Amino acid sequence: MSTNVLRSPFGEECCEHEKVLLQNDYKAYFFKEAPFNDDALQRDNYLIIGRRGTGKSSLAEYFKFQETLPNTRCIDVDEPEIYYKVLSKMSNSIGTSAELNNTRLVKIWEYLIWLLIFNELKDEDEAIKKASHFSSAQKPAGFIKSVLTGLINAFLRDDGELTDELDEHITSNVVGKAQQKAEELLTQNPIIIAIDTLERYDTSDTAMMQAVAALIQCSSNFNIQYAHKGIFIKTFIAAEIFPYISENEIANTTKFVRNPVYLIWRPKDLVKLISWRYYLYLKEHDLLDEASQQDINWEKFQDVYQKMWLPYYPKEIRNEYGANERVFPYILRHTQMRPRQLVIILNKIARLSEQVKFFPHFNAETIIMGMKDAEIELANEVINSYSKIYANLGRILDALRGFPAVFRGNLLDKYAPRTAAEWTSGTYSPYKFRQIIAEMGIVGRVRSQDTGRTNIIKADFEYALKDRLVINSQDRYVIHPMFYNKFNIINEHNVIVYPFPDHPDYAEDILQ
Predict the structure, then answer these.
(1) How far apart are CA 507 and CA 501, in angstroms?
(2) I need a surface site. Which of 52, 298, 302, 458 has the fewest CB within 10 A?
(3) What are the tens digits of pLDDT across the range 231-243?
(4) Cα–Cα distance between 216 and 221 in angstroms, integer?
C-alpha cells in the first residue's frame, strides 16, 4: 500500500478525507483490531452509538470489506445531510398525533430501506425491478432524497398533510412480492445496510427528532424480522443526541434499544491504532527503527507497545507542573479518548519534531508544545458538536473562565446565573447549565485522589458512561484538562486529572 497521498504521519482528521486520498488503498489502511468491530457485525446488534471522532464513518466503511460475514454486499447511506431536510418536511406533514407520526414514520423508513434493497437487486429479478419505482444510479443518500421528494409530491394534500393513499402505496402487493423475492436472494447472499445520521442536531426540532426515533424503532423491527434472513441493518446515532431521543422520543426503550454498541475506546486499542498508522507511514518512507522492522503481532498490545511506541516516544516527561509523568497518559488525559483527537495531537507533535530535525522521534518539548497547540482546537470541536443543541453555547460556557480545576458542585450554582441572559427565552435554569457541562465532558465527578506522591485525581466523565452524569451540590468535581486553555482554568494545587473510566483496562501499566 502506498501512503504517499496521505499528508500526515498519523492520517487525516476524518475518514471521508482518508477515503478521498487513499481510494482503493483505504482497505489496507483500516485498523481491524478496534474493540467494537466484531460486536458491530453481530447479528443481534443493529444500533451503534458514538460521539464525533470515535470512528462511526470508518466503521461503516469497514462493512464494505469485512470478512466476518462472507459473500455480503453493503449499502452505505452516508451524507445524511442530503436528505434530512426533506425527511423533516415529511415528518411535519404526517399529522398532529404523536402516535400516528411514529407509526407512519416507521413505515416510511421501512419502505425506504426496502427501496434501497430493490435498487441494489433490480437487475436480478423482474418482480423486484417492477417495485423499483425510484430506480436510480445516485448515491444512497441522494436516492433517499429523491424517494422522499417523490412521495411528498404525490401524496401531500393542500392542507400540508399526507394522504392515506401513502400507506396503501408503501404496503402494496407489488412491494410485498418484491420483498419476498429479495428475501430469497439475500438468504444466500446477505446485505448490510449501514445508515448514518447527522452529527449535529437541534433537539428542539421535534419533527427531526421523531424521524430519528422512528429510524431506531424501524431498525429494531427490521433486525428481529430479517437479520436471520440475511438483511443486516446497522444504524449509527450520534451519542451527543442519543440521551434526548431515548428519554423523550422513543416510547419503549427496552423494546427498541437492544444491545447497543457504544464506540468507547480503551487505551491499549488507541495505542495500537495510532501505532498501526505510524508504522505504515514510516515503512513507506523507510524511517522505521530497528525494533519496528521486526514482525509485529498487532493483536497483542505489549508487542505493539514495545516495537512501535517505546522506540519513538520518551517514557516520561516533566509536565507543566514540574512533575514527572508517563507520556501516553499525559497525551490521553488531554483528550476524550477519541481517535480523531489523538490523530490531531500527534500530527501537530510530528510537525514540530520535523522542524527541530528530530522526526520520526518525539521529545518532551515537542510533545508539550504540540499538546498546547491542539488543546483549544479540540475543545472548540466538542463545543461545535453541541452548538445546535444549545443556542449561544459559546457565550454560556464563558461563565467557566477562571474557574478552579477542582470544586464542589454548588459552586456551579453561583456561576450559572451569569449565563441567564444568553439563553433563549424561558430555557435557563441552574440544572440545565449543569447538564450542558456534564454532557460535553467539560466537568467530571472525582472518584479518588492521591494526595501524596502523584497528586493524581481520577474522575468519571459522561462521555465514557452509558448514562447521564448528574452533578450534585456537595460532591467534588474537576474540569477536564482539554479545556484548561480554552477557559483559563486555575489549577491552584497542580492536580493531574485522569479522566478515565473506573475499568480494569485503565489500570494497565501504560497508565501508571
Answers:
(1) 10
(2) 302
(3) 999 999 999 999 9
(4) 9
Query: CA nearest 361: which of 292, 410, 258?
Result: 292
Ramachandran bin of 65, using left for φ above 0, alpha for ψ from -120 to 50, beta for the remaining angles: alpha
Give the strand pairing for 191-195 and 231-238.
Answer: parallel
CA angle 221-67-63, nearest 5°? 50
| Burial (CB count within 10 angstroms: exposed 0-12, middle 13-18, buried 19+), residue 140 | buried
DSSP string, 487-507: HT-B-TT--EEE---SSGGGG
The C-alpha cell that represents 477 in the structure block: 468535581
Q: Which one-letter DSSP state was computed for residue 291?
A: G
Contact 195, 84 (CB under 8 A): no
Write the Ramachandran bin of 388: left for phi over 0, alpha for psi from -120 to 50, otherwise beta. alpha
* Mean pLDDT confidence for 140-168: 83
Task: Name every residue whose Cβ is closer than 8 Å to that of residue 12 and which is 6 or more positions away in sequence.
Answer: 6, 18, 21, 343
Beta bridge partners of 448: 458
Q: Which three cell numbers stand for residue 276?
A: 498501526
Burial class (CB within 10 angstroms; exposed 0-12, middle 13-18, buried 19+) of 210: buried
Angle, vertex CA 147, rays to CA 46 and CA 71, nearest 5: 40
Neighbouring residues of 199: CB distance < 8 A, sequence distance ≥ 6: 52, 238, 240, 385
Q: How many CB atoms lie within 10 A of CB 470?
A: 13
Say which residue the cell 479518548 belongs to: 337
pLDDT band at 1 (very low <50, low <70, confident <90, very high): low
* Amino acid, single-letter form, for residue 125: D
Amino acid in the structure at residue 222: F
Structure confidence by residue, pLDDT tens digits, 309-330: 999 999 999 988 888 899 999 9
The three grid cell numbers given for residue 1, joined into one nine-digit string: 500500500
DSSP designation for 156: B
Residue found by looking up cell 497542580 in the block: 494
Q: What letter would DSSP give residue 72?
A: -
Which three-class secondary structure state does DSSP give residue 74? strand
Place of cell 431515548: 246
Question: Distance between CA atoms of 220 and 253, rounded to whole angstroms?
Answer: 11
Q: Which helix (H) or strand (E) holds 192?
A: strand 191-195
- Residue identified by cell 445546535 is 388
- Residue 60: half-sphere exposure toward Cβ, Cα within 13 Å: 27
Output the nine-digit C-alpha cell for 410.
454548588
Give the residue from 194, 243, 215 showing the smallest Cα distance to 107: 215
Residue 206 has pLDDT above 90, yes or no: no
The answer to whether residues 452 and 465 touch, using CB atoms and an 8 Å cutoff, is no
Rounded Cα distance, 6 and 16, in Å: 13
Distance separating alpha carbons of residues 110 and 106, to the nearest angstrom: 6
